[in-house]
Amino acid sequence: MKVLYGILIVxxxxxxxxxxxxxxxxxxxxxxxxxxxxxxxxxxxxxxALRQVESVIEEELNKNGxx
Length: 67
What we know:
This protein has one domain (2-29, 38-64). The chain is mostly helical and 67 residues long. It is built from two helices and no strands.
Protein backbone atom coordinates (compact mmCIF):
# COMPACT_ATOMS: atom_id res chain seq x y z
CA MET A 1 0.00 0.00 0.00
CA LYS A 2 2.93 2.36 0.72
CA VAL A 3 4.20 1.90 -2.83
CA LEU A 4 0.80 2.90 -4.23
CA TYR A 5 0.79 6.06 -2.10
CA GLY A 6 4.29 6.89 -3.27
CA ILE A 7 3.33 6.44 -6.91
CA LEU A 8 0.21 8.59 -6.44
CA ILE A 9 2.19 11.37 -4.75
CA VAL A 10 4.93 11.39 -7.40
CA UNK A 11 2.35 11.26 -10.19
CA UNK A 12 0.43 14.15 -8.63
CA UNK A 13 3.61 16.22 -8.37
CA UNK A 14 4.50 15.51 -12.00
CA UNK A 15 1.00 16.52 -13.15
CA UNK A 16 1.09 19.67 -11.00
CA UNK A 17 4.50 20.59 -12.42
CA UNK A 18 3.29 20.09 -15.99
CA UNK A 19 0.14 22.14 -15.39
CA UNK A 20 2.02 25.02 -13.76
CA UNK A 21 4.71 24.95 -16.47
CA UNK A 22 2.10 25.30 -19.21
CA UNK A 23 0.26 28.08 -17.35
CA UNK A 24 3.51 29.99 -16.82
CA UNK A 25 4.54 29.54 -20.46
CA UNK A 26 1.22 30.94 -21.70
CA UNK A 27 1.23 33.93 -19.34
CA UNK A 28 2.21 37.17 -21.13
CA UNK A 29 5.08 39.22 -19.76
CA UNK A 30 4.06 42.25 -17.68
CA UNK A 31 4.38 45.72 -19.17
CA UNK A 32 7.94 46.99 -18.99
CA UNK A 33 9.46 43.50 -18.86
CA UNK A 34 9.52 42.79 -22.59
CA UNK A 35 13.10 44.00 -23.11
CA UNK A 36 15.27 42.82 -20.23
CA UNK A 37 18.65 43.85 -21.64
CA UNK A 38 20.75 44.79 -18.61
CA UNK A 39 21.96 48.33 -18.20
CA UNK A 40 25.66 47.89 -17.46
CA UNK A 41 26.14 51.36 -16.04
CA UNK A 42 24.40 50.67 -12.75
CA UNK A 43 25.72 47.50 -11.13
CA UNK A 44 29.41 48.36 -10.81
CA UNK A 45 30.63 44.76 -11.09
CA UNK A 46 33.98 45.00 -12.87
CA UNK A 47 34.33 41.36 -13.94
CA UNK A 48 30.77 40.82 -15.19
CA ALA A 49 30.54 38.50 -18.22
CA LEU A 50 28.15 40.83 -20.04
CA ARG A 51 30.43 43.79 -19.55
CA GLN A 52 33.39 41.82 -20.91
CA VAL A 53 31.46 40.87 -24.05
CA GLU A 54 30.37 44.48 -24.61
CA SER A 55 33.94 45.72 -24.20
CA VAL A 56 35.20 43.18 -26.77
CA ILE A 57 32.52 44.30 -29.23
CA GLU A 58 33.40 47.97 -28.65
CA GLU A 59 37.10 47.23 -29.19
CA GLU A 60 36.33 45.45 -32.47
CA LEU A 61 34.17 48.33 -33.63
CA ASN A 62 36.84 50.88 -32.71
CA LYS A 63 39.51 48.78 -34.43
CA ASN A 64 37.48 48.64 -37.64
CA GLY A 65 36.58 52.34 -37.49
CA UNK A 66 32.85 51.70 -37.48
CA UNK A 67 32.13 53.34 -34.13
